[in-house]
Specification:
Elements lengths: L14 H12 L22 E5 L28 E6 L3 E4 L3 E3 L4 E6 L8 E4 L6 E5 L4 E4 L2 E3 L5 E5 L9 E3 L2 E3 L9 E5 L5 E3 L2 E3 L6 E4 L5 E3 L2 E3 L19 E4 L4 E4 L2 E3 L7 E6 L10 E4 L2 E4 L4 E5 L6 E5 L2 E4 L7 E5 L3 E5 L2 E3 L3 E15 L2 E3 L4 E13 L2 E3 L5 E4 L3 E4 L2 E2 L11 E2 L4 E3 L4 E4 L39 E8 L2 E8 L8 E7 L5 E7 L4 E5 L7 E9 L2 E10 L14
Parallel strand pairs: 1-2, 2-5, 3-6, 4-7, 5-8, 6-9, 7-10, 8-11, 9-12, 10-13, 11-14, 12-15, 13-16, 14-17, 15-18, 16-19, 17-20, 18-21, 19-22, 20-23, 21-24, 22-25, 23-26, 24-27, 25-28, 26-29, 27-30, 28-31, 29-31, 30-32, 31-33, 32-34, 33-35, 33-36, 34-37, 37-38
Antiparallel strand pairs: 39-40, 41-42, 42-45, 43-44, 43-46, 46-47
Length: about 575
């Protein structure tokens, strides 16, 4: 049996994924690698020894070349420092687990990259883990792994505790809501990376991690987990999560799309160090998109005794009209929660640790039913948030709060000082676009928070920051560098101007401006010369469509011959 392909994402669900792509481009990071860290996994080309497997061959050989492949994984005895690759577009039923008990091994694919991933399928009721990794430095990549009944698709094995494993670009899944893998990928080993995978139809968790540190989970698409819910919806029976971390430290969870809209209970992401005395550093959770449904929450952060966690640049959306569930439920001691979007929930953030010193900053709370932030903490700093919530809801429903520079849709919800009251003027909240329109009262209305110098799309927060998760980006931005008797101008535009448009520059230090017109549309730089030093010039750049200016920006600069040069310091 084989699962039909996971449905493509609806366009409104692409919001955070496109945001992640924009950040990759802004940082000039390789999209084929793990863009967040620059990590690139091993490939078969990194191995001197390669064993080829082609289940479709009619003339099997010893596996030493594509012309003489093995016919089955059942014939493989894994050796160290070797890559084992299956031909793309083939299906390999296995009757026993693929056990990797040697170091520095790769399981992967060969053949044209446009061909489908090779499939490894469960052909026996006796298989517990389709791929069972029991040694260090093992990479599993570019495979489709399917079973209607096994315990795990990929298992970095408990008891063996392998470290430095990688699961990369695999499609790990059951078949449907009654024929499922119990877990997609399970991790019991330090420094494991689970990146760029799709995981679907699991009875319990999509990804489960326990006991170890320095784990990275990123760029995964996780859907149709906790399928035991259809058998018995009680949490005692159906307690699966999208991603679960149990007793772990220094984790990094990022750029995952987790759709929990088909089953209830538990969480999209849970990080819970049950032995918190040994795990005090916590981790970073960023750029994830979580779709929620009834009787569950987006993120649970445990660790009441000593635990730090940063939760930033995520989207938590409840998908039904009854607006239940909580976006972030935290027991952490020092949570920092910023640049997140909370949509259609009962509560955005629930903080329950009477010793917690929490920070909630630069978030957007939209269409919430009960509370923006609720709980019981020792202290909460709430700054630069937008509360566009129901009239019956409370923005900050807790004590010990220091609040300033928040925007409230309604006067009755105001808490703290320097509040802004009114419509934040989002671009299109119905389509999850919470960028600010020109003229929004949130623009330049925030207070500087030194540790948050970037918005949710990695744009720099300049001067007085905007309230909310996104710094307003004008369509046209003009920059200038003063020189002696000259100014060098550059500009950026984040829309596509009409091909027939031109640029016009007007500048003056006296009442009558000078104008340069009909600059070609692709131009992004121009130098003004013959200027007077120590005279202020007002410079306006227009994108022109015929005689009409369609985009405008203006700056003031002072040409000078007193230019500052930093000294060269030799070490």
């Amino acid at each position: 049996m084989r699962l039909s392909r996971v449905k493509p994402l609806h366009r409104r669900n692409l919001f955070i994924i496109l945001t992640a792509l924009a950040i990759c481009l802004a940082l000039d990071l390789p999209l084929g690698a793990n863009a967040a860290t620059g990590f690139q996994p091993k490939s078969p080309a990194d191995y001197a020894n390669i064993v080829y497997i082609d289940p479709s061959t009619s003339t099997p050989g010893n596996g030493s070349s594509p012309a003489t492949p093995l016919a089955s994984w059942n014939n493989v005895t894994v050796q160290p420092n070797t890559a084992y690759v299956q031909k793309r577009g083939t299906i390999a039923p296995i009757t026993k687990e693929i056990r990797v008990n040697q170091e520095n091994v790769l399981l992967g694919a060969y053949g044209p990259e446009d061909d489908p991933r090779p499939i490894i399928s469960d052909a026996s009721t006796n298989i517990t883990h389709l791929i069972n990794v029991q040694q260090n430095f093992v990479t599993v990549r570019d495979l489709e792994i399917v079973s209607p009944r096994a315990t795990s698709g990929i298992h970095f094995a408990a008891g063996a505790w392998p470290s430095d494993g990688v699961a990369w670009n695999c499609y790990v899944h059951g078949v449907d809501q009654t024929h499922y893998l119990m877990w997609g990928i399970r991790v019991f080993g330090h420094r494991t990376k689970v990146l760029h995978n799709t995981i679907a139809y699991t009875g319990d968790d999509g990804i489960f991690v326990q006991y170890f540190a320095d784990i990275e989970i990123g760029y995964n698409h996780i859907t149709h987990v906790n399928q035991k819910w259809f058998e018995d919806p009680s949490e005692a029976h159906a307690g699966g999560d999208g991603i679960q971390f149990d007793t772990t430290d220094r984790f990094y969870i990022h750029h995952n799309y987790i759709d929990r809209s088909d089953t209830g209970n538990k969480f999209c992401i849970i990080v819970d160090p049950k032995d918190a005395s040994g795990f005090t550093t916590g981790g970073l959770i960023e750029h994830n998109a979580c779709k929620l449904t009834t009787t569950m929450s987006g993120l649970f952060a445990g660790g009441a005794t000593a635990y730090t966690i940063t939760i930033r640049n995520n989207v938590f959306e409840y998908v039904h009209a009854d607006r239940q569930s909580i976006g972030v439920y935290s027991h952490a001691r020092w949570p920092s929660i910023y640049n997140n979007i909370f949509i259609g929930l009962d509560q955005g953030i629930n903080l329950w640790n009477s010793n917690a010193q929490a920070k909630v900053q630069h978030n957007v709370f939209y269409n919430l039913d009960h509370s923006g932030v609720r709980g019981n903490v020792a202290s909460l700093e709430a700054r630069n948030n937008i509360f566009a919530i129901d009239a019956s809801a409370q923005a900050l429903n807790l004590s010990n709060v220091t609040a300033s520079h928040n925007l409230f849709l309604r006067q009755a919800q105001v808490t703290g000082s320097q509040a802004v009251i009114g419509d934040p003027q989002f671009v299109n909240p119905a389509s999850q676009d919470f960028h600010l329109q020109p003229g929004s009262p949130a623009i330049d209305a925030g207070v500087v928070v030194p540790e948050i110098d970037r918005d949710a799309e990695n744009h720099t927060r300049i001067g007085l920051p905007d309230i909310g998760a996104f710094e307003f980006q004008p369509a046209l931005r003009l920059f200038g560098q003063p020189r002696s008797h000259a100014v060098h101008l550059t500009w950026t535009i984040n829309v596509t101007p009409p091909v027939t448009s031109t640029w016009r520059i007007a500048y003056y230090s006296q009442p009558v401006p000078l104008t340069i017109s009909n600059i070609l549309s692709p131009t992004r730089a121009h130098s003004l010369t013959g200027l007077t030093n120590y005279a202020w010039y007002t410079i306006t750049l227009n994108a022109m469509l015929g005689p009409t200016p369609v985009y405008t920006d203006t700056i003031k600069l002072l040409p000078t011959d007193r230019l500052v040069h930093l000294p060269v310091i030799l070490k």
